[in-house]
Amino acid sequence: MNQSYDFIIIGGGSAGCVLANRLSSDPAARVLLIEAGPEDTALKIQMPGATPYVIADETINWRYYTEAQENLDGRRLQWPRARVLGGCSSHNTMVFIRGHARDYDHWRQLGCVGWSYSEILPYFRRSEQRESGEDIYHGGEGPMRVRPANFPNPLNQAFIEAGIEAGFPYTDDFNGHQQEGVGRFDVNIGDGKRWNTSRAYLWPALERPNLEVKTQALVTRILFDANRATGVELSVQGQIQQVASTQEIILSAGAINSPQLLMLSGIGNANHLKKHDIPVVIDLPAVGQNLQDHLDISIQHHCLQPVSLAKYNRLDRKALIALQWWFFDSGLGTSGHLEVGSFLRSSSSVETPDIQHHFIPIAILEHGTQFPNVHSYQASVCQLRQDSRGFIELRSNDPRDHPVMQPNYLDTEDDKRCMREAVKITREIFAQPAFDEFRGREIQPGPACQSDADIDAFVRAKSETTYHPCGSCKMGTDANAVVDPALRVFGTEGLRVADASVMPTIVSGNLNAPTIMIAEKAADLILDRDALPREYVPIAEALPRGEKTVNL
Fold this sequence. Notes:
Layout: E1 3-10, H1 16-24, E2 31-34, H2 43-46, H3 51-56, E3 64-65, E4 78-79, H4 101-109, H5 117-127, E5 128-130, E6 144-148, H6 154-165, E7 181-184, E8 186-187, E9 189-190, E10 193-194, H7 197-202, E11 211-214, E12 217-225, E13 228-236, E14 239-251, H8 254-264, E15 267-268, H9 270-275, E16 282-283, E17 289-291, E18 295-303, H10 315-328, E19 340-344, E20 355-360, E21 376-383, E22 390-393, E23 404-406, H11 413-430, E24 439-444, H12 452-462, E25 464-465, E26 495-497, H13 512-526
Parallel strand pairs: 1-2, 1-14, 2-11, 5-6, 14-26, 15-16
Antiparallel strand pairs: 3-4, 6-8, 7-19, 9-10, 12-13, 13-14, 17-22, 18-21, 18-24, 18-25, 19-20, 20-21, 22-23
Helix pairs in contact: 1-13, 5-13, 11-12
């Protein structure tokens, strides 16, 4: 062993940076954070408007691809995942959504004691520094700078008004009393800059003498003495090193890398491990199972008015945006462009929203790396709680080989129905009077796509990931769980998992804020601190369509 630490955190992403801060707040605890990618100091990471260029940068993206999807015309979908300090909070669109309160009450019903909404709300609040100040739903002094999206664009306002005209409610806070409806997202942007977990949690802690950060270091396996995790093996510039842990190792490498590393270390399905000549430490077949993701489809229109983001698609105007952001922390560069959206129910029989819209005032292709030179707009809509389940498996025992990623999209009829209804609802919103002055020809799926069979074919041909894989190291108490409600890996000592992979079921919204919450709660569990007191707040029930209207 080269060195020894009390706590070793594997993965410097959305959860790992939180843990590095919270665990090193005890000056007696020696903490090591290990990240496979570089630091997050690149200007394009800090500039919210440059997000597509960050995703496209192969030096900070794992460039994962799924297996061919039977229900998506055999396509292999690109799964961008960040390989940089801050993790996916360094390349996402900064939409800061918690999910519905009932998501977490459902976790508790599944046996995850301590994870009901009243129990995790204090951790959401602890993480937040909301621009408008503290209230019963939001925090005012946390590390994460959060505010409602507010960049003006008439198309954004048209989407909200059209949703109301279609009979859906308006909500002024998706993370507050009422998630259901149309409105503006909260975003983690502060002073015109991306407020990722590295900036929020790690940067303030870097001067602590008891915290060390290793970047460009790939952990190849966790080391064990019998069933106790004692250290990690890592590759740094081609050299193999080993570092020891005297207390705990926390795996925060994400929904793909966390199960992969467990299996590489001998924790997983014994038959699968033996197939790859990996000595079995713990036979735990649930590792890598229960994989979930939000599937997304985009409906696009030409825009009759020159108000979309297409007018900024010239090199000189892009340069002006960058300069305005650099010198004045203002302008279009301060926005991630996904400002407004919705949480709606695909049918009256659904109790909570099961589809989500992300509206953007331009049509985009190839994960935002291609933009048309004509004025356009689109709404991407995803299914929030799919029934389909997939898995992560090893492709080989080489840590550098990408694992098998099989999400099994649209594996059930109800998932197909929900996506079909999502397309219909999106078209209905776009058909409202609020879009009359903007609505040009539908780009996709196009006027010829009308029948249910046509819509199903469109979904199969064009749907993509919403960048929300999770669930592959499921938390619970049943035989299909990998970690217990204290996030300890079953059958081991000194090893926990704390990231989106522990979600037993995917939450109804974007995953970054919930991942931060998981890490906040994990820190108290690891340090054996009392849980924050429960907080009970009112949560709106389902709203009949057309019942409620408000003045914006």
